[in-house]
Sequence to fold (511 residues):
Amino acid sequence: MPHPSRRTFVKHIGAAAGAGLLFGAGPAATGAAESAAGQVRFARSIPIARAYDVVVCGGGPSGCAAALAAKREGLTVLLVEGQGQLGGMATSGMVSQWLGGRNQKGEWVVGGLFRAIAEEAASRGYALLPKLDPAKKYHPFGWFNWFIHGVPIDPYGVARFLDEKMKAFGVDVLLLTQAADVLVDENRITHVVAFNKSGLTAIPARAVIDATGDADVAARSGCEYVKGDDEDGLMTPATLEFHVSHVDEEKLTCYIENQRDPKLRNKIRELRAAGVWPFPYDIFICTQLTHPDTFYVNTIRLVGVDGTDGGSVTEGMIRGREEIEKLVAILREHVPGFEGARLKAVAPLLGVRETRRIVADSTMTVRDLSEGKEFPDTIGFSMYGWDLPDPKKPSVQPFATDDASRGYRYTVKKGLNTPLPYCVMVPRPIRNLVCPGRAVSVERQVLGPVRVMAPCMAMGEASGIAARQVVGVGAAFSEVDVPQLRQRLREVGAIVDESALPEIAPRVDQS
Ligand SMILES: Cc1cc2nc3c(=O)[nH]c(=O)nc-3n(C[C@H](O)[C@H](O)[C@H](O)COP(=O)(O)OP(=O)(O)OC[C@H]3O[C@@H](n4cnc5c(N)ncnc54)[C@H](O)[C@@H]3O)c2cc1C
Fold:
């Protein structure tokens, strides 16, 4: 993959602004056609906003944790989020279940901010911490009794809760604002160029945390990245999530128990044979949210969407809404428990599982995990499986387990406790940029356990703490004193040592 050349978006920077964010149009941009490249050069002067120690781009799980952690370290922090609310996939994407942070007994595998946020959200009714009944074979929070404990959330409550958290910690937030570009000088980002209704603004930053999920900032600052499968560049299908209310949970659970068919594969086979099921996937996944009659449906599989291509994402949203309308009608007519179901909400943000991954000095591989490699720079763990759907066969998910005899494609020596090394978040060559979340430097199959939201929060928290050294002593993120970072993480309740983990869980399925 050719690396994008580093660009300077803002050619002329105006005088520094006083206190407070300053927005407003500068002189009109000038452009001169460069017909040979099919491109036009764009240059304008734009206002400089207030300077921050840390600008966090993207307010999803990794970005929110990063912003809170950096602020807790005493830094000034601005969190820039493209949507109108914080929470990322959990709220705007309506993937309303935080996975990967607890084992099947409900014990915490991700501590620190994730645990604190999940427990407080649950105490205020914005989240649930389900306790599984071992006597029950299927439960509506993922259906399998060995399913790793998710934390279902109410996306509206959590968005509000995150607003409150940012305010309480003193994190400044800009919603409906894109991190559009960067200014780079000698391998350091000097400004994040943000765009919102006020126009373009240059925000001076000493450290930048790229939590966009798509490595937008890393790509725009000239960092190395890869995208999709090594051979053909294909990426796992996208999903437009939706919520339905008025589901009869008892009836649905009873049906699934009787049929022993939690993903409705037999039902879908019947419906396809009868000409009722028109979709190119044979899988149905739904999970109960905080109210027993409300489920999120994670089923639509949009093959061929590129989450870094504006046109492709638009097409995915439109195709997704069309499929949701058909799917809800089929559920109401054919699936027990859904007869009275009502479409409650469709996500305003497309569910993109995979796009760019940065290339760090070190990349975590399938082999590393199969061989149980130790990572001395571990900053957290994930308790989740390897479930990235196949780009061409959307119903196929290659699972991992610690038991080779099950015949899964991967075996993982240490069970499902996947370590999260610090080094996979550090892009090159930009010195003051770190990239927590789903764009980390791992082989794409390893994304399965790493990309779910609790480990993303663990990575975000570590990034925010690491930023203190970058801002304080002017180190690069690659030069951060990792033992000191790990010690600080222990102090704030994060789990960074294998010895602190609860016992290893067995296998896992789906997201
Ligand atoms: C369909 C689907 C189902 C999934 N199921 C589950 C599940 O059940 N449980 C689970 O835990 N995980 C699940 N995952 C995985 C998980 O949701 C994501 O991998 C995780 O949210 C990644 O966290 P993040 O912080 O890296 O990015 P995101 O959650 O994607 O957050 C990134 C944020 O950055 C913002 N942003 C992006 N670009 C810019 C920009 N240039 N400027 C400003 N803001 C920007 C976005 O609006 C977004 O709010 C699922 C993912 C998908 C797509």
